[in-house]
């Protein structure tokens, strides 16, 4: 909502269902089969739509190096549903030049990471928490040596974890 406005007619609305559904119908994996989260590709598509909404240009998908970090990702839906015959998902990070020039601080416990990923979770059941080190009350991401960058407050649920690296760019 824009400050000083008497009503909510100036609110920006973002429809992510339409582009994600279109991508899925075209054969793209936008949601994990074994989990309730979007894939990193799905998060990328959301990033593209956000950039359009904000009048900014998103990086093309070709600007990223896709790093497969797990070919054995079983999400919470798989663990809870008892459908053990379903094959695991593949989990990916979309890496870009300079993405390790960011420092991520988890203020809950004081953990500090270079970049956006806590790779220790890749050895655990909850691999999705490798994105910004999971669910925390307060995490900051800052680009090293660039204090004059614009700031973004991301009030999020867990879908925001895999979106944060794109928004930090």
Structural overview:
With 169 residues, the protein is α+β, with helices and mostly antiparallel strands. Helices cover 23% and strands 18% of the residues. It has helices at 17-25, 40-53, 76-81, 159-168, and strands at 65-73, 89-95, 102-106, 111-114, 139-143. The strands form 2 sheets. The protein has a 3-stranded antiparallel β-sheet, with no helix packed on it. Helix 2 (40-53) packs across helix 4.
What does the secondary structure layout of this molecule look like, with pairings?
Layout: H1 17-25, H2 40-53, E1 65-73, H3 76-81, E2 89-95, E3 102-106, E4 111-114, E5 139-143, H4 159-168
Antiparallel strand pairs: 1-2, 3-4, 3-5
Helix pairs in contact: 2-4
- Helix share, percent: 10-25%
Distance between the termini: 24 Å
Strand content: 15-25%
Taking the sheet with the most strands, its summary is: 3 strands, antiparallel
What value does the Rg take, in angstroms?
17 Å
Biggest sheet strand order reads 4-3-5
Q: What count of helical segments does DSSP give? A: 4
Kindly summarize this structure in a few lines.
The chain has 169 residues and is α+β, with helices and mostly antiparallel strands. The protein has helices at residues 17-25, 40-53, 76-81, 159-168; strands at residues 65-73, 89-95, 102-106, 111-114, 139-143. It contains 4 helices and 5 strands; from the N terminus they run ααβαββββα.
């Amino acid at each position: 909502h824009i400050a000083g406005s008497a009503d909510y007619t100036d609110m920006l609305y973002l429809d992510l269902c339409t582009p994600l559904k279109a991508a899925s119908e075209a054969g793209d994996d936008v949601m994990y089969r074994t989990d309730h989260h979007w894939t990193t590709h799905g998060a990328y598509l959301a990033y593209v739509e956000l950039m359009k909404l904000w009048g900014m240009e998103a990086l093309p998908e070709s600007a990223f190096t896709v790093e497969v970090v797990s070919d054995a990702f079983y999400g919470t839906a798989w663990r809870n549903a008892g459908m053990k015959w379903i094959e695991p998902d593949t989990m990916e990070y979309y890496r870009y030049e300079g993405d390790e020039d960011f420092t991520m601080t988890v203020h809950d416990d004081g953990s500090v990471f270079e970049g956006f990923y806590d790779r220790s979770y890749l050895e655990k059941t909850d691999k999705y928490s490798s994105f910004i080190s999971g669910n925390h009350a307060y995490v900051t991401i800052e680009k090293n040596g660039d204090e004059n960058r614009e700031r973004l407050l991301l009030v999020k649920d867990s879908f925001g974890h895999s979106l944060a690296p794109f928004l930090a760019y």
